[in-house]
């Protein structure tokens, strides 16, 4: 260790100032992030903390709002319904996305581009437009009921029912499942499956014991994403569903807009946020990706 | 033989799922050209009258104009703030960097309804509900992550020796940024800007809480239309939104490809 003051020779002097210059430049550079950090801090972090504070301070200090929610029959019903709905949507999405993503890996480049476009188009287009389309498609005289009648299953009431909401939500969520599953499948080395079959495994066994486990990472990532987004989904359940079948996000909205009960709304929001963060952290650990799950970036669903 | 059958079944399933993905996205287009006063599909007569209503009735037209103006302002603000932040974050190593990265991704992960209620409670106290500033701030918070992600990935695939070359030839740091760095990361900045525009233009949940009857965005107007009225004008509105966002995002995808 040669300190700057003791090494007064010209030969060693230039090095330390160069280092401190880059460090100072680095610190100055960091100031560039300041405006964005201030905006996010003041208008995102502070409101979130305020809401959490409201949940334990209104109307009185304590965890009354949380115990109140846990003992309120309506709230418990809505939470269970939301969890059930999210689970159904997630299963529907896995069942549809897995074969679809697999198909994407075995077709030629041109068809792959078509299949990718079919996933990305709804991923990118207006959620309001699609939800409105589902209201039209699911109405009693709508196309879905006509199709059901044609195969002898209809007419059935769909609009305002949990069945209708699941169908619409699964379509909105499907891209969030297909993209991670496809990403995982694309990374699988086909020769491993060939090797298994070369060693005498039947195709079904080669698939179940080699391919499926390798693709599960993508399924886990997609399923968590869909689960998280479904739990907090507001727009589609509000418009396709009915107030009698409301979900968690609508319950939060009613607490705020109609009852002005910020304490209870805050408690529900904090609970939803904690569940979300736990799920996201879990999947990040599982898939070992840095930053946000890739499929979260660029989608519109909330 | 068996695998041919399997492949056919897979293709059939793929077509069904593809249709399921596509139909609800595109069905608003034929409905918007119907001549009926209901959402009948397929329509029995065709006309442009829903577009006429959309572009003449103040509640729809104002909502469209508000949305476009907001989205333009949000795009400029979010792109400036987000690009500066992404540049700073990618060029400095320091403790607490993970926390900052988390901060920049948080608005993507936190459920929309949680952001909406938190912002609503705060804005109510700060007098920002139903104000243009309130909308701009709320949308900017949601749009910044899309800019930092896009610019960050552009900066990640960037050859730093070009900057060192410029610096060794005597260029100052700002000059190097303007002449070397910025042109090279421009596709990332532009696609971040497009995402910022679409985020603002398409946002529903937070906007529902920030709106006032006097100041609504187009998605909020559409939301109230589906909730309260049977007005096929919404089909024209949806078609305009789908066309605009698809055009913009195709542009962003093209920009990204040219970058690669």
UniProtKB/TrEMBL annotation, chain A:
Protein's membrane topology: Multi-pass membrane protein
GO biological process, any: transmembrane transport
Keyword set, alphabetical order: Cell membrane, Membrane, Transmembrane, Transmembrane helix, Transport
Transmembrane regions listed in the UniProt entry: 29-53, 73-101, 113-138, 158-182, 219-240, 260-283
One GO location term (cellular component): plasma membrane
Principal location listed in the UniProt entry: membrane
Protein family according to the UniProt entry: Belongs to the binding-protein-dependent transport system permease family. CysTW subfamily.
Name of this chain's protein: Putative spermidine/putrescine transport system permease protein
Organism of origin: Pseudonocardia hierapolitana
From TrEMBL, chain B:
GO CC field: plasma membrane
Transmembrane intervals: 9-33, 60-87, 99-123, 135-158, 179-198, 234-255
ABC transmembrane type-1 domain: residues covered: 64-253
Cross-referenced PROSITE patterns: ABC_TM1
UniProt entry keywords in alphabetical sequence: Cell inner membrane, Cell membrane, Membrane, Transmembrane, Transmembrane helix, Transport
Single Gene Ontology BP annotation: transmembrane transport
Topology class, membrane: Multi-pass membrane protein
Location(s) in or outside the cell: Cell inner membrane; Cell membrane
Gene3D superfamilies according to UniProt: MetI-like
Main subcellular localisation: membrane
Transmembrane helix is among the record's keywords: yes
Keyword Transmembrane helix in record: yes
Family: Belongs to the binding-protein-dependent transport system permease family.
Protein's name in the database: Putative spermidine/putrescine transport system permease protein
């Amino acid at each position: 260790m040669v300190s700057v003051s003791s090494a007064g020779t010209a030969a060693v002097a230039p090095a330390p100032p160069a280092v401190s210059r880059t460090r100072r430049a680095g610190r100055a550079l960091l100031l560039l992030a300041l405006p964005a950090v201030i905006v996010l801090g003041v208008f995102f972090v502070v409101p979130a903390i305020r809401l959490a504070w409201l949940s334990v301070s209104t109307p009185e200090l304590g965890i009354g709002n949380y115990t109140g929610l846990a003992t309120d029959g309506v709230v418990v019903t809505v939470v269970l319904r939301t969890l059930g709905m999210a689970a159904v949507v997630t299963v529907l999405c896995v069942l549809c996305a897995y074969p679809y993503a697999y198909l994407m890996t075995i077709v030629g480049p041109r068809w792959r581009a078509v299949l990718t476009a079919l996933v990305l188009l709804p991923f990118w287009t207006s959620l309001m437009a699609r939800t409105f389309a589902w209201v039209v498609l699911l109405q009693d005289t709508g196309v879905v009921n006509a199709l059901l009648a044609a195969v002898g299953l209809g007419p059935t009431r769909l609009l305002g029912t949990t069945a209708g909401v699941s169908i619409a939500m699964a379509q909105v969520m499907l891209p969030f499942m297909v993209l991670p599953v496809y990403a995982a499948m694309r990374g699988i080395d086909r020769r491993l499956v060939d090797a298994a079959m070369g060693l005498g495994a039947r195709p079904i066994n080669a698939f179940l014991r080699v391919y499926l486990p390798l693709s599960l990472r993508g399924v886990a990532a997609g399923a968590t994403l869909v689960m998280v987004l479904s739990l907090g989904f507001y727009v589609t359940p509000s418009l396709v569903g009915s107030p009698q079948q409301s979900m968690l996000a609508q319950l939060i909205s009613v607490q705020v807009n109609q009852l002005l009960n910020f304490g209870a709304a805050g408690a529900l929001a904090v609970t939803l946020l904690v569940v979300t963060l736990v799920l996201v952290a879990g999947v990040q650990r599982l898939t070992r990706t840095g930053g946000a799950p890739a499929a979260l970036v660029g989608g519109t669903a909330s | 033989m068996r695998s041919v059958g399997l492949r056919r079944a897979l293709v059939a399933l793929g077509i069904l799922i593809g249709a399921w993905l596509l139909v609800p996205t595109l069905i608003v287009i034929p409905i918007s050209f119907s001549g009926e006063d209901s959402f009948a599909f397929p329509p029995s007569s065709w006309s442009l009258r829903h577009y006429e209503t959309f572009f003449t009735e103040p509640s729809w037209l104002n909502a469209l104009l508000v949305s476009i103006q907001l989205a333009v302002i949000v795009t400029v603000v979010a792109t400036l703030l987000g690009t500066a932040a992404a540049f700073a974050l990618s060029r400095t190593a320091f403790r607490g960097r993970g926390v900052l990265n988390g901060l920049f991704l948080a608005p993507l992960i936190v459920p929309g309804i949680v952001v909406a209620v938190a912002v609503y409670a705060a804005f109510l106290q700060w007098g920002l509900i139903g104000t243009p500033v309130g909308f701009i701030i709320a949308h900017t918070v949601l749009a910044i992550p899309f800019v930092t992600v896009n610019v960050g990935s552009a900066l990640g695939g960037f050859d730093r020796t070009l900057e060192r070359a410029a610096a060794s030839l005597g260029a100052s740091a700002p000059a190097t940024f303007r002449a070397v760095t910025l042109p090279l990361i421009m596709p990332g900045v532009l696609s971040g800007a497009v995402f910022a525009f679409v985020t603002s233009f398409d946002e529903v949940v937070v906007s529902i809480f920030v709106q006032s009857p006097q100041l609504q965005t187009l998605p909020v107007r559409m939301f109230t239309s589906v909730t309260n009225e049977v007005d096929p004008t919404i089909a024209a509105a949806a078609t305009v939104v789908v066309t605009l966002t698809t055009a913009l995002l195709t542009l962003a995808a093209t920009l990204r490809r040219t970058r690669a």
